[in-house]
Amino acid sequence: MTETPLNRLALFAIIAGVVTGVLVAAINWAVIGTERLVYGTDHIATLGPGETVAPARLAWTLVGVGVVTAVAWFLLGRFGRPTVSVPGAMKGEHMPVPETLASAFLQVMSVAAGAPVGRENAPRLLGGLAAAGMTRSLHIDAASRRILVASAAGAGLAASFHLPLAGALFTLELLLLEFTTRTVVAAMVCSATAVATTSLFVHHHPIYRAVTLSERPEVLLVAIIVGALAGSAGHFFGRAARKVAARRARGTQVLWQMPLAFLVVAALALVIPGVSGNGRYAAQLLLFDEMTVSMMLVLGVARAAVTLLCFRTGAVGGTLTPAFALGALIGAAVGTVLHPLFPTLPLGAFALMGAAAFLSTTMAAPMFGMLAAVEFTDMPAQGYLAMFVTVIAAALATRAWAVLIDKESKATIWAPTQWTQAT
Questions:
Q1: What is the dihedral of CA 157, 95, 117, 62, to 10 degrees?
Q2: Which residues are paired to 318 by β-bridges?
Q3: Are 299 and 307 a contacting pair, CB within 8 Å?
Q4: How many CB atoms lie within 10 A of CB 398?
Q5: CA distance 4 to 154
Q6: CA 212, 206, 211: angle at the middle one, nearest 5?
Q7: Which whole-number Å values give the CA distances from 220 to 361, 385, 389, in the listed order?
């Protein structure tokens, strides 16, 4: 089959972006609706909907969410066709529409109700579904199909969180693994179109408010230190998350393991604020110095544990906002230790750099991690260099660990699509 010309490829990317944007708007409203139904408010009106209710009410809610979610995932797996991942759709595998839609909405609604995982997997799925359906209907060649499905998947992530540049980088850095004229044009056009379309239906607001970074020498020195430490932690967390997700409960196991996992989350939520949900509440507190050192350590360990536990017991989701929160916790902890050496730097600066470093290595995507942190916070330009230094330090630290302890695999800084699976 003849390769699709670049101008037509761009047109198809626009169409895929529009459809993706509409679908993402639908799941974003599903998130808002679920939050209002369960907690009486939403993440636009308040920082953490789950934190607005009494701990006992939150705990009982999480227990109920665990039971309902377990039954829903069991029924979907028992009676639905197997879902297809974005990489599978890039290869031409058919994505069943009802099952893919059900999976996407179930993912985001469970996170909105308190599941401690990320929700970015769902919009990627919907973007892939939109592009896969279009390419099949129009009989587009295999090479162009691969580009368009990947572009729409990245555009879905971009539209959900208003990250147009980061979404395009996700496509290029994690899905396509190549930077050519065709891939860059398709990824950028599709991402921008999807974000603009979703913005017509859902009001945009910065995901996080953060302190302003600068290019002062002490800031760049801290970026190296925090980047190496938080980046190393993110690398090992990402490896652990991938391993437990690959071994997650299936079939009837989900019916008892997932409720037990949510029971653990509920018990922890009684005494540890911020342990449930996708981590936005915890990260925002850290970015404005509103947490004690002991609370940082307790919350960091608890959040990492419950995220891995939920993946192991059958929860489906992502690591984007949980990783950002864990990185902020590590960065803030490092900042507390180093405060006597850098008294003029606010703890929020350490938290922000830690979040970017941890996210970049968890996702195995340095450029994506940097741009996601920038766009998450609407960061001014003077903070870009510090972010760049942070993620480079994180990437080099990850590479050093790979050489030291993982010599056979020789893990590269840029890893393939580990976190785009959608089953």
A1: 130
A2: 118
A3: no
A4: 26
A5: 20
A6: 15
A7: 19, 8, 7
Contact of 360 with 391, CB cutoff 8 Å: yes
Q: What is the pLDDT of residues 129-155, one digit of tens each?
A: 999 999 999 999 999 999 999 999 999
When the pLDDT of each residue in the chain is averaged and rounded to a whole number, the result is 89
Question: In whole angstroms, how far apart are CA 210 and each of 119, 164, 347, 402?
Answer: 22, 19, 11, 32
d(CA 225, CA 331): 10
pLDDT at residue 413 greater than cutoff 70: no
Half-sphere exposure of 153 (CA within 13 A, CB side): 31
> Which three-class secondary structure string do you get for 302-313?
HHHHHHHHHHHC
Start-end of H helices in 270-319 = 280-287, 293-312
Distance CA 51, CA 114 (A): 10
Contact 365, 173 (CB under 8 A): yes
DSSP letter string over 191-231?
Answer: HHHHHHHHHTTS----S---PPP---HHHHHHHHHHHHHHH
The tens digit of pLDDT for each residue in 246-303 reads 898 888 999 999 999 999 999 999 988 888 888 888 888 777 766 778 888 899 999 9
Which amino acid, one-letter code, is at 410? K
Q: What's the rounded Cα separation, in Å, for the pair 262 and 312?
A: 12
**Nearest Cα to Cα of residue 266 among 276, 255, 253, 251:** 276
The pTM of this model reads 0.91
Q: Give CA–CA dist 183/188, Å, rounded.
A: 8
Least confident residue range of 8-22, 156-170, 197-211, 243-257: 197-211
Q: Any bridge partners for residue 118, and if so which?
A: 318
Specify the DSSP element, H or E, that contains 127. helix 121-137
How large is the C-alpha radius of gyration of the chain?
20
Q: How far apart are CA 248 and CA 102, in angstroms?
A: 19
- In 4-120, which residue ranges form alpha helices assigned H by DSSP? 6-39, 55-79, 86-90, 97-112
Q: Give me the domains of the chain, ranges plus CATH numbers.
A: 6-199 (1.10.3080.10), 217-414 (1.10.3080.10)
What span, in angstroms and rounded, lies between the C-alpha atoms of 182 and 9?
Answer: 8
pLDDT at 49 over 80: yes
3-state class of 297 per DSSP? helix
23-28-30-35 Cα dihedral, nearest 10 degrees: 170
